Amino acid sequence: FWPLNEISGTIIHDVVGTNNGTCMNTSGLTLGGPGILYGQGVTSDTAIYFTNTSSGYIKVPYSTTLNTPKFTVEVWLNMTTFPATGAGVDMNPLTFDDSNPKGWAFEIPYPNAANPNMYGWLGHNNIWTQVNSGTYIQGQWAYYALTYDGTTFTVYTNGVTAGSQSSSYTQVSSLHSLYMGAYDSGGIV
Fold first, then answer.
1. Tens digit of each residue's pLDDT (9 = 90 or more) over 156-165
2. 3-class DSSP state of 93
3. pTM (predicted TM-score)
4. Which one, of 135, 132, 177, lies nearest residue 155 by Cα?
5. Which among 42, 79, 163, 177 is placed 20 to 30 Å from 32, CA to CA?
6. Per-position DSSP letters for 7-56, written without gaps between them
């Protein structure tokens, strides 16, 4: 669990386990920005802001504790407006996959469009199962989750099922990291 509440440094702490991450391309990250609960008297809730113009991202090294055959992934995101400045295609807020494809990802395929959709992706031996989470919610905090129970891949938006599909799943190899704000070591692209 990474609350992303650091206000300085380059280590992003896993407050439950031992899977700390590292800030990469730090000029593209702003630590200590207002978080989801910030306001109404709460002044200590902070978040990390990513800029796609400088490709800042967080890299969490591979760990077997992250690579399970059944899982739930949750993320709170707040992007102000689309089209995103400097965006090309395939913006990945959170991903743990490889190009075979194996693993899973959240992806906004067209962040250079006015109202893009966000998808959950699940990889299995060169095949992606894709579930649309709907139009990305802009200008406010939104909660996204994806789950895999061994047979069904489900994506949620703000606690409501956006869609699901039967699917197989192949875990990533030990050569791959979990990325926040990037598809791979190239940052947001």
1. 999 999 999 9
2. strand
3. 0.90
4. 132
5. 177
6. -SSSEE--SSSS--EEEESGGGEEEEEE-TT-BTTB---EEEEE-TTTT-
